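#onboarding

Welcome to the new folks! Below is a worked example of what a typical request in this channel looks like: someone posts a single protein sequence, and someone else replies with the predicted structure as tokens. Don't worry about understanding the tokens yet, we'll cover that in week two.

Example request:
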Amino acid sequence: MVREEINKMYYHALKLIPSLGPRRIKRLIDHYQTPFNAWQASREELLRLENFGPSVVEEFLRERSKIDPYQTWEEVTKKNISVVTWDEPGYPYLLKEIYDPPPLLYYEGDLGVLENSCLAIVGSRRHTVYGKEIAYKFAGKLANYGLTIVSGMARGIDTWAHRGALEGEGKTAAVLGCGLNICYPAENRNLKERISERGVVVSEFPPGVGPMPKHFPQRNRIISGLTLGTLVVEASARSGSLITAGFAVEQGREVFAVPGAVGSPFSRGCHKLVKEGAKLVETVEDILEEIIIPLSRESLPEAVPSQQNIAGKGNDLLDLIPYEPLLLEEIILQSKKSPAEVSVLLLELELSGKIRQLPGKYYLRI
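Example response:
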């Protein structure tokens, strides 16, 4: 067994211990350097670690004694489930930036779709025909711009977002609140298979772990953590989608909300988000104005130049950007170009090392 697989095996074993959340596992790895060393730690050593009190240590030792790392890892590999750990190159880079990233992700499908720019589309399980159509159509159009659509594969808006991306010939990723060998809800089994074939299904929960209520807020932080922004289509005042939006705010990501009818219980959550500063969305362009994505030539609007002309126009745009932070809206105003065109040019300038993006959609010349 090669070193990389041994690391994954012991990460998986650590993940099976209930008292070890992401932050405790990180503390173990920071101290012991490898998951194998952390697994072998003695009671005396563990008690010296911050946030490892006697009760936590005793539970760790008790649960560890019940686990055979080799056997449990074999159970994962037999299910054809792949694993990526947070110290591997393939781990989603945006997710690694959040406060408590999962130490490993279990996945089925192509994890590479998460290397694209990603947008979360979430909403209520109970929804209106209006919400269904918005989720489906927006997902399809945004996927055509090269965005990977991320959602939670729940009933309702999540399902329609995944379907819209798939039927729009785009990419999508589902984040589950249970182990990958469990399909929840059961009626989405065919959808789960389609997502695995055309995108990726991921979870931080080991195979066999059921869909417990406490798992879904944990899942929601991953949905927002994988993405540049979260679009809430329909949400009641107590919808779990608002939890996802809250995580997006904490993580410094964009939040978008689709308005609904005044007084509609299905839109109260969205209206609350708008009041709190989320961007009101009426068209996909409202979203594209706020996030920068690498657009393919086939998907570029007419106002966006071909690749041959980008370099020259990019330098023209560079002349407008000072060596101190300038807001994106001001750049668009001064350039007299469309928001989509400015987004492409800014991306080119950033990739070439000529400008830097700062939090809050500010840019400066370097």
